[in-house]
């Protein structure tokens, strides 16, 4: 819209009563300032008037657009009345005005209602949804119809997609609270291009003018899913899109815009605030606007050239038919088949190329022209082939897949095969190509994978012509480029380690001259300095005359196996050395123990007292323990009796046993009682040894009084055998040796009678893995009650009937009063 002009044609400045100043000439009416320009107050006045004038002119433009769009609706409604009533345009205009007055509606609202009743399309359904769901106030349904029909007329009359976006935002989306809208178009490579936008800044639109394939955006989510996606908050969804920086927490809705099963673009609507769940009426409005966008995108010329142009004419089926006939693989040319509502329900097989072979044996003519689901109903089954064809047709993004499982019905029997699939869209048609994997190709593929995994390469050498055929794996094993010639068998020694020359010579002698299958391993020196261990196996191929014609065989990289064998050999050698060292150590330990603790002790010169000792070492030499005993006459003519058990096995236990036994002998010379001796021995174990702990029972027998004073340190108490009865002595207080720095041990005195026998023993005599200690001691007492011919016989009887199964040392001391 142009502003008023002067008589001379010069545009007016918008300020009444003033002529426009000439360019470059200062305004003579403006008061001068110190800087030579107009006064600030005058500037503000001028700017305010100019802004008001601009806003007024914009309002007039908007009003003119609205009036023109409203006139388009009224004219369309008049056309409906002309067709329905059979009257002229003038009479239809009068009839429209009369109906509007009677209904209490404006001519625009009534025109929208007449168009809805006549069209019964998605726009009409969206307007009727408000009435059915009672979402809006009375009269709102009419305004919704006006908005949608106005947006439709503006979009259909627009010259570009930018005008369509502005019309949708102004007439249909701003009343819903939306602040911006973007219209994307899809390319054959599944890219997205911004064709129209409103409410977004120019810089933002420039940054988002193109979205490459594979970039996940809000619009691509709707495109790949082929469904409407609602985002209550775009930032919460974590998906990028246009305008996210300006409205980070705003809601979004993205709708695929398509017709006839083909998606032409995506409509994206933006709200400034988080979006609450919308009623179904609003959802229908959005879907109706998306369908309107699809029709306009299909009709409007593209703003930018496409990466892959569509075929020039029609659906492109004739061109694809000619193209498919030049392929060596089976191919079908498919075109969409729509129902009465314009929805895609199937694909028509428009052409079958020359290399097509029907799995059911039908001729090409019976398949050509049929519907895909009727000819091949299994495509809608578990393989989802029909869904992939439908997706390619909708989005334009090609699909490629290897070893896809295809199922076809032959006499109602499903037959399955593996094939490589290619699906692409060209214009309005889809080209389906497949290559069935036959048995020989599959076996060849398996063989190649097996040779790669086993690091095996086959070869064949023609002895007559000298031609050599190598499998590709061999070049990698030998470290040679594929442009280099293969290595002949006769030249193999030149590529091997010198020490393996004789081995290779014998191998060649067997294969080439003795003509027998042979195999050998050798070290190969590659050009890159790497040494590989290879095994070669070859067999001669004889001709009809019995002469050598060719040699076939294979090389295998056994480097990993070789180094594993080397490592196992080294480990085995270390284990043997360790076992020998352990045996030697156990032998020395046993010798040390036997030197200090002989299995039988010589008779003890103690008047009125018979003493017998038995020591049974562990059955396993690796379990040399720390059991010890001692029976010695002290200078005071009293007899020291003790047994003990050092924790652990081996040299440490044997060494600890020697320390405690010798220390106790030295301490006993002082004449102290057994409790004091164990207290001193505890200090020795705690302070003067390397963390040695032990149990012990110590007794001092006085021959004159026939009394036995004794104490225990965590050890089992002695056993008293009197007559036909045997009982263990009381369990006195006393911690094991070495547990604490200081400890006191309780003493007890026992007066013996002639014929009494006292037994001291270590736990190796009674301990069992599956029996409690109390039950084991009860079994010992039962054996001790058995009659015997003497003390020596009694000890032998105890060892023979011992039920211990822990393979531990055993010490037993027996004293009998005569």
From TrEMBL:
SUPFAM superfamilies: GAF domain-like (SSF55781), PP2C-like (SSF81606), PYP-like sensor domain (PAS domain) (SSF55785)
Protein name stated in the entry: SpoIIE family protein phosphatase
Chain segments carrying region Disordered: 1-42
Stretches of the chain forming a coiled coil according to its record: none
Keyword Transmembrane helix: no
Keywords for the protein's UniProt record, in alphabetical order: Hydrolase
Alphabetical list of Pfam families matching this protein: ANTAR, GAF_2, PAS_3, SpoIIE
Keyword Nucleus (UniProt): no
Family annotation (PANTHER family): STAGE II SPORULATION PROTEIN E (PTHR43156:SF2), STAGE II SPORULATION PROTEIN E-RELATED (PTHR43156)
Comp. bias (Low complexity): 19-33
Record-annotated membrane-spanning stretches: none
Record-linked PROSITE patterns: ANTAR, PAC
Domain PAC: 518-570
Ranges of residues in domain ANTAR: 54-115
């Amino acid at each position: 819209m142009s502003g008023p002009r002067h008589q001379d044609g010069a545009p007016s400045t918008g300020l009444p009563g003033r002529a426009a100043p000439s360019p470059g000439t200062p305004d003579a009416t403006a008061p001068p300032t110190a800087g030579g320009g107009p006064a600030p107050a005058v500037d503000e006045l001028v700017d305010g008037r100019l802004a008001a004038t601009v806003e007024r002119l914009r309002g007039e433009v908007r009003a003119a657009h609205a009036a023109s769009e409203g006139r388009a609706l009224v004219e369309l409604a008049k056309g409906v009345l002309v067709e329905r009533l059979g009257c002229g345009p003038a009479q239809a205009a009068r009839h429209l005005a009369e109906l509007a007055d009677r209904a209490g509606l404006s001519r625009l609202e009534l025109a929208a209602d007449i168009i809805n009743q006549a069209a019964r399309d998605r726009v009409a359904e969206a307007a009727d949804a408000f009435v059915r769901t009672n979402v809006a106030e009375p009269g709102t349904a009419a305004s919704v119809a006006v908005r949608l029909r106005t947006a439709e007329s503006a979009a259909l009359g627009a010259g570009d997609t930018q005008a369509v976006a502005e019309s949708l935002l102004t007439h249909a989306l701003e009343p819903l609270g939306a602040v911006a809208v973007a219209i994307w178009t899809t390319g054959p490579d599944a890219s997205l291009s911004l064709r129209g936008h409103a409410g977004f800044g120019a810089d933002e639109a420039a940054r988002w003018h193109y979205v490459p394939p594979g970039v996940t955006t809000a619009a691509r989510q709707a495109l790949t899913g082929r469904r409407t996606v609602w985002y209550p908050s775009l930032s919460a969804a974590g998906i990028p899109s246009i305008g996210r920086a300006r409205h980070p927490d705003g809601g979004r809705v993205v709708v695929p815009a398509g017709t006839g099963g083909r998606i032409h673009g995506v409509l994206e609507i933006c709200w400034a605030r988080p979006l609450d769940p919308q009623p179904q009426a609003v959802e229908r409005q959005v879907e109706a606007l998306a369908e309107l966008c699809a029709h306009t995108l299909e009709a409007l010329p593209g703003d930018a050239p496409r990466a892959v142009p569509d075929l020039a004419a029609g659906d492109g089926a004739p061109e694809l038919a000619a193209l498919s006939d030049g392929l060596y693989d089976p191919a079908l040319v498919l075109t969409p088949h729509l129902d009465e509502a314009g929805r895609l329900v199937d694909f028509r097989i428009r052409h079958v190329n020359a290399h097509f072979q029907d799995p059911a044996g039908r001729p090409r003519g019976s398949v050509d022209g049929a519907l895909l689901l009727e000819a091949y109903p299994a495509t809608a089954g578990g393989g989802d082939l029909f869904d992939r064809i439908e997706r390619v047709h909708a989005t334009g993004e090609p699909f490629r897949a290897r070893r896809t499982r295809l199922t076809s019905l032959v006499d109602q029997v499903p037959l399955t095969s593996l094939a490589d699939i290619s699906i692409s869209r060209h214009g309005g048609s889809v080209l389906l190509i497949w290559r069935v994997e036959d048995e020989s190709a599959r076996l060849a593929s398996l063989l190649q994978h097996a040779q790669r995994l086993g690091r095996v390469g086959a070869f064949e050498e023609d002895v007559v012509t000298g031609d050599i055929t190598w499998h590709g794996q061999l070049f990698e094993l030998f470290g040679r480029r594929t442009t280099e010639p293969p290595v002949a068998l006769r030249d193999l020694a030149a590529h091997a380690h010198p020490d393996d020359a004789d081995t290779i010579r014998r191998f060649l002698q067997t294969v080439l001259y003795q003509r027998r299958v042979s195999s050998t391993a050798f070290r190969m020196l590659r050009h890159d300095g790497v040494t590989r261990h290879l095994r070669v196996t070859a067999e001669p191929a004889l001709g009809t005359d019995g002469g050598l014609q060719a040699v076939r065989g294979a090389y295998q990289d056994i480097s990993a196996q070789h180094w594993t064998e080397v490592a196992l050999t080294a480990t085995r050698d270390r284990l043997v050395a360790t076992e020998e060292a352990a045996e030697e150590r156990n032998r020395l330990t046993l010798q040390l123990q036997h030197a200090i603790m002989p299995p039988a002790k010589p008779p003890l010169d103690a008047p009125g007292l018979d003493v017998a000792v038995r020591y049974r070492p562990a059955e396993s030499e690796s379990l040399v323990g720390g059991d010890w005993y001692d029976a010695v006459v002290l200078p005071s003519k009293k007899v020291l009796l003790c047994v003990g058990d050092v924790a652990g096995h081996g040299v440490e236990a044997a060494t600890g046993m020697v320390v405690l036994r010798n220390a106790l002998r030295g301490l006993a010379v002082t004449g102290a009682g057994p409790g004091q001796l164990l207290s001193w021995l505890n200090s020795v174990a705690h302070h003067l040894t390397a963390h040695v702990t032990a149990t012990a029972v110590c007794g001092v027998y006085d021959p004159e009084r026939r009394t036995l004073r004794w104490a225990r340190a965590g050890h089992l108490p002695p056993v008293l055998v009197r007559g036909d009865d045997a009982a263990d002595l009381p369990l006195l207080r006393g911690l094991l040796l070495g547990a604490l720095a200081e400890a006191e041990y309780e003493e007890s005195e026992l007066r013996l009678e002639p014929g009494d026998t006292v037994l001291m023993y270590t736990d190796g005599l009674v301990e069992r893995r599956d029996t409690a200690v109390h039950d084991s001691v009860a079994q010992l007492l039962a054996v001790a009650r058995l009659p015997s011919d003497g003390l020596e016989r009694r000890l032998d009887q105890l060892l023979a009937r011992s039920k211990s199964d822990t393979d531990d040392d055993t010490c037993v001391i027996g004293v009998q009063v005569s």
